[in-house]
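Below sits the subject:
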Amino acid sequence: MEIERLQKVMANAGVASRRASEKMITEGRVKVNGKVVSELGTKVSPQDVITVNGHVLEREKKVYYLFYKPRGVISAVSDDKGRKVVTDYFTAITERVYPVGRLDYDTSGLLLMTNDGELANKLMHPRYKIEKTYLAKVTGIPNNDALKKLRLGVKIDKYTTAPAKSKIISTDQKKKKALISLTIHEGRYHQVKKMLAAIGYPVEKLRRSSYGFLTLQGLVSGEYRPLTRDEVERLKNN
């Protein structure tokens, strides 16, 4: 029988981050077996019934998937405009998964899906600096001086990006277009698009090809696969 701290169980269930879960506990918003618990040292077993704000906490088996998100899909569990969302591809599984971070509506590529709130919060925290590689089809053919700016960091939205790894994968001299590989560890809004626009090469198409050690190998757009136990452990020990 696995005994865990209450705030960890809440975070794992996707209620909130561990710190936010601790705040809920100290505010008296959490009950265990019908009794209000406000001490942070409380530990619970799988048999204990936990309620948060009057709602019973459902503890599911932790699942982890690598998803090849297509373009034209929202990185969310629902959309008020009725557009397709990433969870539409996971109707065959019983667990309620959600995306780790996000990819833009018109960006395709690697997206992690899980119900492990603790791991999701960890992976999204800036201090872990997980490298993410993007393949960008751009208008124009950058020279080395332009790519050097990316490697040094460029100014966008009143801040300077961290140094990135960049290289040209292929070029089309006739159409004046290029395919660029760009590796960053930050994850600001529209960052890759803004970085390439800042050096004068707007993005026409964008795909995230890797996330840390994970790649899209063996998948086509719209497909997913479960992570192996070793892959999950590597992410947790990152």
Q: What stands out?
A: Residues 131-211 form a domain with the Alpha-Beta Plaits fold (CATH 3.30.70.1560). The longest helix spans residues 18-26. Helices lie at 6-12, 18-26, 117-124, 144-152, 191-198, 229-236. The two ends are 27 Å apart (CA to CA).
